[in-house]
Design a protein that fits this description.
alpha/beta; 5-stranded parallel beta sheet; 15 helices
């Protein structure tokens, strides 16, 4: 595919601003490329060298069809991590010494390379993670937009260097932000390109070096990011691709004494352990997004058709495997019956199948652990609640070859444990409340605070929700996704409470600064 193909139209998670026939034609081309390149062996990339490992490789299987081997990826050891960190340490200072404009030129070239290859990248994500075509292409497009948005932020702030005041006429003072050094970047499977590119590019363009570990379930997408960076001219010693299992190298990465910072998206349990144990001799930056249990409130004045569509899209997009997924909905008692009927109608209409195919919305969950989580959550819902739809594994025809479960809605008592526990599977908990105050109380009593939504026809009620909900990302009356769909420069993706470590999120105007530390410089002239 040509560069022109990549520029023809913009794709987000909910829309493509061009003819969908052309969208699907280009996606089919991407699938053709991906299938031609399936099953190959892939090595580690450390300091410009392709390295093997003595460990058995990671066999990358498609959750759509687990007999389909996408590739075999070298599994790094702690020795490989040590090699990568030391090489990154050596390469970081020359990279940081470049004028910031030169670093931005390289990073913007990487964004352009992602756009050039976005149909291939999207196709790989669909096969590797089980994303629908629109979700996969939105992920690829967002990756490039994140890089450009962060580069614009550096440029708008003149490389984060500015003069300060003076106490005497011969005093020259300046405030600068400078890189920390080496960041360990540990990515999740669900947005394997966008989150990888967003985290790593912010570190890189601010003068840091990066040792990058893709998710064990999505190494191929991570390798494509590495290829885009190298094609853009990023020095090999500044970015290292280290595929491997969390058990083998996860701790080795963030515990390495020469790692100066960690940027991580994943579980609260792992993130909190990093937060407690990473800083020993002195505090180090630990930038983390740690999941969510995201509520939506459907008020008595809501447009119920809009609410039903928005909740279903948010609950079941990518099979509920988003940190921002709507996993619980609180409905005003006066509209509970009508809303529930509409929600069930929308859910029944979801097309389930191979998400790489045209018009399929709902695909498989990522792996056998997710299947077990789903089964346990269904059992818990049946114990003290009522399943309204779903609850079963799907075995019909080709679905039997993958990790398929049914989109599930359970009406539960408000004190049920599924209103508080993050699941990362397609199970929506529905509860009935007597008004916004009870909805706020139930929403805020959970330890997470990532995204939230409200459907209401009353602007004062919406403002009250925004002012009192303990969430970093808030939406009102969003048909395209009640709690999902943040975009660079449009919605800052900020986790409160147990959902994040810094209070300043990706996609927003305060993100890149977190990869640097402040230095005041005074010269007496």
């Amino acid at each position: 595919m040509t560069s022109a193909d990549g520029k023809q139209f913009k794709v987000t998670y909910t829309s493509a601003s061009s003819d969908l026939g052309e969208f699907h034609r280009l996606f089919e081309e991407g699938l053709g490329w991906a299938r031609e390149h399936m099953g190959r062996e892939h090595l580690l990339h450390i300091d410009g060298q392709a390295l093997r490992s003595e460990l058995p490789p990671i066999v990358d299987l498609s959750p759509i069809d687990t007999a389909q081997i996408l590739g075999r990826f070298a599994a790094a050891t702690p020795a490989h991590v040590d090699l990568a960190v030391r090489a990154a340490k050596a390469a970081q200072r020359p990279w940081a010494a470049l004028p910031w404009q030169q670093r931005l030129t390289v990073m913007r070239a990487a964004a352009a390379e992602i756009r050039r290859r976005k149909w291939q990248i999207g196709a790989v994500m669909s096969l590797e993670v089980g994303k629908s075509r629109m979700e996969a292409m939105g992920d690829a497009e967002e990756s490039a937009d994140l890089i450009d948005y962060y580069a614009d932020s550096v440029e708008q702030h003149d490389g984060f260097s500015r003069p300060l005041g003076r106490l005497s006429p011969n005093e020259n003072t300046r405030d600068v932000l400078r890189p920390y050094g080496v960041f360990a970047c540990i990515a999740p499977f669900n947005f394997p390109m966008a989150l990888s590119a967003g985290m790593s590019s912010a570190a890189l363009m601010t003068g840091n070096a990066v040792v990058y570990k893709p998710a064990q379930d999505a190494p191929w997408t991570g390798l494509l990011l590495h290829e885009c960076y190298m094609a853009a001219g990023l020095p090999a010693g500044v970015f290292h691709f280290v595929s491997g299992t969390g058990g083998q190298i996860g701790d080795a990465m963030w515990r390495h004494p020469q790692v100066d910072g960690v940027v991580f998206t994943g579980s609260k349990e792992v993130g909190m352990r990093m937060l407690r144990e990473f800083s020993t001799a002195f505090p180090k930056p630990t930038l983390m997004e740690l999941g969510g249990k995201n509520p939506t409130y459907v008020a008595a004045s809501a447009d119920l058709d809009m609410a039903a569509e928005g909740v279903a899209r948010s609950a079941f997009g990518l099979q509920g495997q988003k940190c921002s997924a709507c996993s619980r909905v609180y409905v005003h008692a006066s509209v509970a019956t009508a809303f529930t009927e509409k929600l069930l109608t929308v859910t029944r209409a979801l097309r389930i199948g191979d998400p790489s195919e045209r018009d399929v919305y709902f695909g498989p969950v990522i792996n056998t652990r997710a299947l077990a989580t789903f089964a346990g959550a269904v059992a818990s819902a049946q114990d003290r609640g009522e399943l309204l739809i779903g609850g079963q594994r799907l075995h019909d025809g080709p679905l039997a070859r993958g990790h398929y479960v049914a989109p599930t809605i359970a009406r539960l008592p408000l004190d049920h444990e599924l209103f508080a526990r993050e699941l990362f599977v397609p199970l929506l908990a529905l509860g009935v409340v007597d008004g916004i105050e009870q909805a706020l109380h139930e929403s805020n009593r959970v330890e997470y605070g990532l995204t939230s939504g409200i459907f209401s026809g009353d602007r004062a009620e919406i403002d009250h929700w925004f002012d009192n909900i303990e969430s970093g990302v808030c939406y009102a009356n969003r048909r395209s996704g009640a709690t999902t769909g943040a975009w660079p420069g449009v919605q800052s993706f900020t986790g409160w409470k147990g959902s994040g470590s810094s209070g300043k999120g990706g996609c927003g105007p305060y993100y890149v600064q977190q990869f640097m530390r402040e230095q005041s410089r005074t010269v007496m002239e």
